[in-house]
Amino acid sequence: MSSEVGQQHPLNLYFWIWGLLFVVSAGSYATDYMDAGYLRWALILIFMFVKAGYIVAVFMHLKYERLALIYALLLPPGVIGLLVALMAWESNYTWLTRIVFFGEVVEPERLPLPGAH
Amino acid sequence: MAQVTAEETTGLATIAKDWSSDVTTFKGVPWGKAMMWIFLLSDTFIFSMTVRATTAEAWPNASEVFSLTVFGQAVPLLLIAIMTFDLITSSGTMALAVNYGYRREKKKAIRFMYATAFFGAVFVGMQMFEWTKLIMEGVRPWGNPWGAPQFGSTFFMITGFHGLHVSAGVVYLIIIAGRIRKGRYDNTNFEIVEITGLYWHFVDLVWVFIFAFFYLW
């Protein structure tokens, strides 16, 4: 019975993932030396999701749980993620309202806003 | 009992089956663990909202503020990197503690839990150093020397809320490790270590997103 409850995996698995997390973190840190741009943003997101995936899937054992639990935990944050993406998409609008309310453009060329072309 | 077909034990059909079976929904999951997951899920919402705030703000001088703390002086970025690696290290020791707990090797589990708490305390210490430095440079929740005043409030809100979680986790780890040593969980499967571990890994997980969206972006 006791073997049914809980998570038992070989230690090697944890050492592997531990090492991979260090490698991915180093990659994530390395993006800071890149120039701002779509490639850098993409790499930041990729490293972030890979790292988060390893932690959730293996360290938190979600990979080994039943689908009922996996879906109950991943679907709601997925919806929030969609909201975050939509807000990021709309952030130019926030910037425009600032111009409207403060009446001046605060050196817009200093920052290429995410999503601005 | 009705015969369970292969179709009912695998795939998407199991979701409806488990939820509607009028027994424990999350099979093979101790109740405390399910509840910890639910708590973490609600915590995810709170952290997601702060991240959402940073994406909607798009302060005009964001890259400049970050370059001041990042490129102007090499130390802060180095500190953030060290904090990141420190937290990963603590995640690894926590994973080992969980593993040894299920192997019923109490002593090793307790030792790794204390190690995890130690790395967590180191993290909080480094964060205090970071805060002190930024406050001395003039960053306040209502303004900062570099531009958009929201930067300060967002920074203190996000990293402060995360630091609070780390601090609570350190206390939580020490309490649970002490209880294990006293033998409170001897009659269980030591899933309590995994429950504590879930919380700790979550704290590390949140840092992954803060690192990406707040420090790197």
Structure description:
The complex is a heterodimer of chains A (117) and B (217). Chain A is mostly helical. Chain A is 66% helix and 0% strand. The longest helix of chain A is centred in the middle third of the chain and has 23 residues, at 67-89. With 217 residues, chain B is an all-alpha fold. Chain B has eight helices and no strands. Chain B has helices at residues 6-9, 13-19, 31-57, 62-72, 74-102, 106-136, 150-181, 191-216. In chain B, helix 5 (74-102) packs antiparallel against helix 6 (106-136) and helix 5 runs antiparallel to helix 8. Chains A and B meet through helix 1, helix 2, helix 3 and helix 4 of A and helix 2, helix 3, helix 4, helix 5 and helix 8 of B.
Overview in brief:
With 117 residues, chain A is an all-alpha fold. Chain A is 66% helix and 0% strand.
Distinctive features:
heterodimer, A: 117 residues, mainly alpha, 2 domains, 4 helices, 66% helix, flat, B: 217 residues, Four Helix Bundle (Hemerythrin (Met), subunit A), 8 helices, 77% helix, 0% strand, globular
List the helices and strands and how they pair.
The complex is a heterodimer of chains A (117) and B (217).
Chain A: H1 11-30, H2 38-59, H3 67-89, H4 91-102
Chain B: H1 6-9, H2 13-19, H3 31-57, H4 62-72, H5 74-102, H6 106-136, H7 150-181, H8 191-216
Helix pairs in contact in B: 3-7, 3-8, 4-5, 5-6, 5-8, 6-7, 7-8
> Mind summarizing the main beta sheet of chain B?
none
Terminal residue distance of chain B: 55 Å
Indicate the mean pLDDT of chain B. 84
Q: What's the helical proportion of residues of chain A? A: 55-70%
What would you call the shape of chain A?
Answer: flat
Taking pLDDT < 50 over at least 5 consecutive residues as the criterion, the unreliable ranges of chain B are 60-71
Which term fits the overall shape of chain B? globular
CATH-level-4 superfamily name of chain B: Cytochrome c oxidase, subunit III, four-helix bundle
